[in-house]
Amino acid sequence: MGSKKTFIYMLGKRGLPIFLGCVVAFLLVRHFAYGRAVTEDRYNKMLHSTGLILEKAHYSPKKIDDNFSAAIFDGFIAKLDPDKNIFLTTDIQSLQKYKTTIDDEILGDTVAFFYDAIKIFKQRLSDLKNSFATITASPFTYTTDETLVVNDKDERFATTAAEQSDLWRKKIKYLALQKYNDLLEQREKDTSVQKASDTALENKARQFAARIVNKFADRQLGKSSLDDYFSEFLNTITNEMDPHSSFFMPVEKREWNEEITGKFYGIGAFIGEENGYVKISSVSQGGPAWKTGGVNGGDLILKIAQGNSEPVDVIGYGSTDAIKLIRGDKGTTVKLTLKKADGSIKTVSIVREELKLDETFAKSNVIMKNGKKIGYIYLPKFYTDYDGNDGASCSKDVAKEIMKLQAENIEGLIIDLRDNGGGSLYEVVQMVGLFVPQGPVVQVKGRQGPPGVLTDKNEGVLYTGPLEVMVNEFSASASEIFTAAIQDYKRGIITGSSSTYGKGSVQRPIAISQVLNTNEDLGTVHLTIQKYYRINGSSTQLKGVTPDIILPGYYEFYDLMERNNKTALPWDELSKTTYALSSSSAYLAPVISEYRRSKDSLTVFEHIRENTQWLATENKKAVSLNLDKYRQHLKEVKAQVQATQALLKLGKQLDIDNTDVDKTAFKGNPDKLERNKFWINNLKQDVYLGEALNIVYEMAGNDKSLAAKN
C-alpha cells in the first residue's frame, strides 16, 4: 500500500466500493476458463458465479454445505413471507426436499428450489387474494378485545387455510382500524353541519384496507420479470456470509452508482421496500427531506400527496411506483405520511429541489461560550475524488475549515461525525494526520497473510488544541476508524451514543461479467474481503467505538445496528501496534472523570434514554384492535414522542453567528445562504451540540491551566 497511496479504499455502512487491483477477478476468471464451460442460462450463470465468488474471495467464507443450504432455505422463505402469513405448513413441508440441496445448486447444479418456491408462493398468494373480498365484505367490530403482533418474527405458519384467513382478517382489520381512527380525527375537526356517520367512516376504512392488501397481492403476482425475486434469492445467499456482502441486479447497480456519485434529485432520500411497505432507506444530508427535520432512515411511507391534493395510500406499492409519485418539478410540494420507528404517525411537507452536492461537503462555524470561541466542523461523509481529477477531498476541505477557524482564534474544536456512514479510508488516514504526528492509523487484514498497517506519514500537525469528536449510533465504518484513532492516541474526547454502529469490514464490487469474461451484464456482487482494526488491536466490528462520555442516542434501542444482524462477522482482535500517546491526554482525563461523575448536566439525556427505551419497547408489543384501547395507546405514544422531541431542543439557543466563517462564501449565491441559515438554526437548538460545547469548553480551560503550570 506504500507511501504513494496507489489504492483508494472505500468503507461504509452501505458497503461502498474499494479498488485493490484485479487479483481476485483474475483468479476467478482463470477458474472458469480452465474449469467448466460457461454455457448455462442466465440465472444459473448468476447463481454459480456468485457461489464461486463467495468461496474464493470472501474474507471469511462459510462452508457451502448442507447447513448453509438450510440457512438459505429458511432465509429465502423469510424474505418472501416475513410475517409467515402466505405459506402454509404444508407448503413448507413440500419444499423440505430442497433444504439440503441448495448448496449443490450454488456449486453447479441447475436452479430448482427458487422456481418451486416462487411457484408455490404465487399460487398461495392468488388463493389469499380471493379470500380478501370475503374478509372485507362485512363491517369490522372495534369493541371486542383482540390483539395483533405486527411483524412477529416468532409467528408460525398457519396449518390450515381457515387459520391463515383469520390471521389475515386481523391484519386487514388493523389496517382498517388505523384508517378509521384517522377518519374519526378528521371528523372531529370538521366544522360542517352534515358529518359522515360512524357506519360510513367504517365502510370507507374497510374499503381502504381492501385496496391496500389487493394492491400488495397484485404487485407480487403481476411482476413481469422474476429478476426482483431472484435478486432477493441471491441476496439471501450473499447475506448469509455477512450482512454487507450483497448482490445488485444491473438496474440496481446503476441506481447504486447514482448514489455514490452524489447526483441526487427530488427530495434527497433513498427509497426501498420492507414487508409490503415503501421505506426511507436513508436521507441525504442537506437535502429537502433532511431540511424538514422530520424524515429519517427507517421511516415507512404510508401515503404520498401532491401539494394539497388527496393523498395516495402506498402500502403495498413497490419502490419504483412510489418514486414516481415522490418525484416532480422543482419547487413543488410533496407530502409524505410516515410511520416512525417509535410507532408514531407524522405527515411531512417537502419542497422538491435539486440536492446541492456542496451540502455533502465539510463546513464549519464558530460558537461562542462564555467569551470563548469554539470551532465546529460538520462532516457528513468521508468523500474523496474517485476519478483522480483533483476533485473534492474531505481531508483537504477539513484542513481548510480548520485554518479558517484558527484565523478566528478558536480555543477548542468539535468534529461532528453523527450519521456519517463512512467513505474513503485514504481520507481517514489523512484526516487523523491533521491532529496527531506521524504514526499508525488503522490495521487492515485480508483473508490470508498478516495484517497491514496504514500510517500517516506526515510529521506535521495542523491543529494542536482541545478536540472533541461527536458520534452517534449511525456513525459507521470510516467514521469509526477516525474516532477510534483519536481515542487511542488520547488526542481528544469522544462523545455520543453508547456505541457507534459497529461495521468493521471492507467491501469491493466484483462484476459477474468480469468473472465470466463476457459482455453480458449479469449483476455485481459487493463482497466483504477485509476487516479493519484499531491501532490498539481491537476490532470495531459489532462493538463499534464506546465514547468517553455517553450521551444516549434516539435510536439506540431499535435494533438497527450491526450487532442486530444475525450473520454479522464476529468481533476479534489483533496485536497492538506501536504508537505514542498525545500530550493532550494530560488534560482529557479530568474532564472525562468530572462528566462521568456529574448527574445534573446529564439529566436531560437520561430522560431521553428512558423515553426512547419506552417507545422501542412499546413498538414491539401487540397492538389492540379495540378502538378505545388503540386510541389511548396512540395518545400515550404521541405524548412520549412530543416530550422526547422537546428534550432534543435547547431552552436557550447556542450563540452562533448567522454567517459562515468565510464571510464571502455566499456572495451572489442566495440559495446557499438560505441553506446555511437553515443549518445554523438547527444547530442553535441541538441539545447534543450544547453538551458537546460544555465539554470542549472545560477542555479549553484545562488546557490553559496545564500550559500555565508547564
CATH homology superfamily of the largest domain:
2-enoyl-CoA Hydratase, Chain A, domain 1
Question: Main beta sheet, described?
Answer: 7 strands, mixed
From the alpha carbons, calculate the radius of gyration and give it in angstroms: 27 Å
The helix count comes to: 21
Strand order of the largest sheet: 22-19-18-14-13-12-24
User: What is the 3D form?
Assistant: globular
- Portion in helices: 40-55%
Question: Layout of SSEs?
Answer:
Elements lengths: L9 E3 L10 H11 L8 H16 L8 H15 L8 H7 L6 H5 L6 H23 L11 E2 L12 H29 L8 H24 L5 H15 L4 E3 L1 H12 L3 E2 L2 E6 L2 E7 L4 H5 L7 E7 L5 E2 L5 H8 L6 E7 L5 E7 L1 E2 L8 E7 L2 E7 L15 H14 L4 E5 L5 E3 H8 L6 E8 L5 E5 L10 E5 L6 H11 L4 E4 L8 E7 H5 L7 E10 L15 E2 L34 H13 L5 H17 L3 E2 L2 H21 L7 E2 L13 H15 L2 H23 L1
Parallel strand pairs: 13-14, 14-18, 18-19, 19-22
Antiparallel strand pairs: 1-15, 2-23, 3-21, 4-11, 5-6, 6-7, 7-8, 7-9, 9-10, 12-13, 12-24, 16-17, 16-21, 20-21
What can you see in these coordinates?
- This protein has 710 residues and is an alpha+beta fold.
- The chain has three domains: 61-239, no CATH class; 265-354, PDZ domain (Pdz3 Domain); 357-709, 2-enoyl-CoA Hydratase, Chain A, domain 1 (Alpha-Beta Complex).
- 42% of the residues lie in helices and 16% in strands.
- Strands 22-19-18-14-13-12-24 form a seven-stranded mixed sheet, with helices on both faces. Strands 5, 6, 7, 8, 9 and 10 form a six-stranded antiparallel sheet that branches. Strands 3, 16, 17, 20 and 21 form a five-stranded antiparallel sheet that branches.
- Strand 13, helix 13 and strand 14 (412-416) form a beta-alpha-beta unit.
- The longest helix has 29 residues, at 161-189.
- It is globular, with a radius of gyration of 27 Å.
